[in-house]
Amino acid sequence: MDCLFLILSIVCFCSLLSIVLNIYNGDILGINNNIEYSLWYITTLAIIFIYSTFLKINFFNTLIKYPIEIFIFVIGIILNIYWSYAWKLESNDYRHRTEYYDTQVFLCSIFFFIIVRRLDLIKTNNYKTNNYKTKNSNKLHTTQI
Question: Using CA atoms, how far apart are residues 44 and 69, in angstroms rounded to an integer?
Answer without folding.
Answer: 10
